[in-house]
Amino acid sequence: xxxxxxxxxxxxxxxxxxxxxxxxxxxxxxxxxxxxxxxxxxxxxxxxxxxxxxxxxxxxxxxxxxxxxxxxxxxxxxxxxxxxxxxxxxxxxxxxxxxxxxxxxxxxxxxxxxxxxxxxxxxxxxxxxxxxxxxxxxxxxxxxxxxxxxxxxxxxxxxxxxxxxxxxxxxxxxxxxxxxxxxxxxxxxxxxxxxxxxxxxxxxxxxxxxxxxxxxxxxxxxxxxxxxxxxxxxxxxxxxxxxxxxxxxxxxxxxxxxxxxxxxxxxxxxxxxxxxxxxxxxxxxxxxxxxxxxxxxxxxxxxxxxxxxxxxxxxxxxxxxxxxxxxxxxxxxxxxxxxxxxxxxxxxxxxxxxxxxxxxxxxxxxxxxxxxxxxxxxxxxxxxxxxxxxxxxxxxxxxxxxxxxxxxxxxxxxxxxxxxxxxx
Length: 424
Fold this sequence. Notes:
Largest sheet: 6 strands, mixed
Structural class: alpha+beta
Helix content: 40-55%
Distance between the termini: 64 Å
CATH architecture of the largest domain: 2-Layer Sandwich
């Protein structure tokens, strides 16, 4: 993609602008370099909770005021917290974008964190965690992550541990906000129908007067190397068994990340609009009626994370059957590699899935926001180019390097009969 302009204000705010005049719409994002990876024990879930509090108002924009204004303008707004970041966005008709820009500049420094609202939101977030616990895979993946990361902040769920959610104070939240919500730790992103010079002038007017400060030193502890396979078994009421196989994967800035992305497309499918019914794992697990479904994920992350394969087993099949098939498929890939035809199909389908996902201005702005978080503002712009450069030898190399037993974490969820769990 072209038309990207990159600026840094004197107070440290990164500004990324891309004009796109295909529709009279602008998507405006503010991305902060703080997520669940930056939370020490005792404060897990704090980044997500602070995100919630940002919707509780400032003196200028009381709670509910922006909901009404953005709804009347025909726009949308939301926010989300990830392992690496907290992002806020508004997508509006181009002539109405000023309200979004003014609101984000205001709540960068003036969020209220009312004590009563804080306590009310505690109940909401604990309820959100408890709702997630109704999904058996939540328990499985929480245990797998905890086993995979014993030191690094990726070990806990984004929503946090319930014991921390019950004990955190309003001051904990406010201090986290004041520490991390500063221009030097943030990027303002706009994609859509605007003039770049005029947009930059607006940003300078709204954000330029916010006091400069050094970017915060983010809490992050490197994970020691894994020295052997780790296994966890979870038993939960239900009738469906799940099997998860994870291997350590590099951070998104590593040259091997895109090679692994193509390897994943060969094993499990490219995602997006295409299905995975011709992928190796679907043929080996679903068509043989061992599994009801299989999926795999490689996420672009700031620090090394995981490449995960999760299998939903049929009622009459056992996790050990899925494990045996998965290990056979990995061994076959490591021994035989991939054909040029299979490689080309994987590259084209993965590129097409990416292009489809980046059609709207909102998704394009998200890509710039995420690129900022990953430390390379061109990361998503170069995505297709780097995918298409992956060779068959590259796939063979990363399959042998990363899918090794010593890098493996295995998770099994065993269903138990709910009636057996009931007290006598």
